[in-house]
Amino acid sequence: MVSHPFSRLRLVAVTLLMPALALAQQEELAVAEVERAPIEETVHLDGVIEAVQQSTVSAQTSGTVLKLPFDVDDSVAAGDLIVQLEDSEQRARLSQARAGLEEATAALADARQRFERIEAVHERGLVSRQEFDQARNNLAAARARVERAQAAVAEAEEQLSYTRIEAPYGGILTERHVEIGEAVNPGQPLLSGLSLEQLRVVVDLPQKYADLARTERRATVTLSDGRALETGAMTFYPYADPATHTFRLRMRLTEPNGSLFPGMLVKVSVPVGERESLWIPASSLIRHSELRAVFVLDDQDRPRLRQVRSGTLDGDRLEVLAGLSEGERVVRNPGVLLGSDRLDLSGPGQEEGQ
């Protein structure tokens, strides 16, 4: 035998009402009208926290790894030594370049003295024009050799500096690509790291919501515990992912407070539209197993239990999808009716949802 759903509803009502205290009969019955009001539709997506600054440091010169002062998960400050390469070859090249500069500087001094002597006698007509031109050209060539030697010294100093790799910013080391004693070449990855001081949220928006989200530029980011995060400017990628057909949205977090880390999942709510809906106080709803019902007052102010289908919970109000009409009166505090003589379960008042 199949029972009618509202026979079950009546049984539920009796089950709920029988254990009530007599004191409930003395309480005031609170009533609210079913109201029609707009609701903002939002799409809820999974976002990922990522670091704004995350990079891999690579070798810029050849050498053997001598020191790795920090390991994975260690914190480093900007300017800390994170890799030291063996530098004997670079120091030898620097010494050679400096010696070449000294030699070129001495040759320049000699060429300048010769030119000054020839210039003095040339003015009195004691040397030929050819000798004068030759002395002047030798001076220019000596100056060029000095400049070339200075450039060689600068390059050698730079190559030597490349043997000492320092942290470009403060953060945490996330990966080590080399070990002590390993020979490295220019371009080879050494260490990877990221900064926790600047974080952002990245989320992929379905194509059908992208245009509206780009126009509205509003989104709410929350953690699993419901705490909302403050976000800064929103950046929309100007192209869609060819595989998922989604547009990437990026938002800077303005409160990296030490409890947020790259890779964490967050909820991103993006407004995508608005529609009219019916609302009742959230306290009006009676829940029992899979049933949802409210007490509705009829024309004689008698409460009748009616099954409804609920929707979105917005603060202290609840959206009603079916079962009620605008302007109907519902009981805000249905607990008052428990065991009260104001409720007559034996009469014809128990209603089916509309």
Structure description:
With 354 residues, this protein is α+β, with helices and mostly antiparallel strands. It folds into four domains: 5-39 and 276-337, conserved putative lor/sdh protein from methanococcus maripaludis s2 fold (Beta Barrel), CATH 2.40.420; 43-53 and 195-274, Efflux pump adaptor protein, beta barrel domain (Elongation Factor Tu (Ef-tu), domain 3, Beta Barrel), CATH 2.40.30.170; 54-86 and 165-194, OB fold (Dihydrolipoamide Acetyltransferase, E2P), CATH 2.40.50; 89-162, Helix Hairpins (Orthogonal Bundle), CATH 1.10.287.470. The protein is built from four helices and 22 strands. It has helices at 5-17, 88-123, 129-161, 207-216, and strands spanning 31-33, 35-51, 54-58, 63-67, 75-76, 81-85, 164-166, 171-176, 183-184, 189-194, 199-206, 220-222, 228-229, 231-240, 246-253, 265-281, 286-288, 291-297, 303-307, 309-314, 317-322, 329-331. Strands 2, 11, 12, 13, 14, 15, 16, 20 and 21 form a nine-stranded antiparallel sheet that branches. Strands 3-10-8-5 form a four-stranded antiparallel sheet, with no helix packed on it. A four-stranded antiparallel sheet has the order 7-6-4-9, with no helix packed on it. α2 packs antiparallel against α3. The model is unreliable at 1-26 and 345-350 (pLDDT under 50).
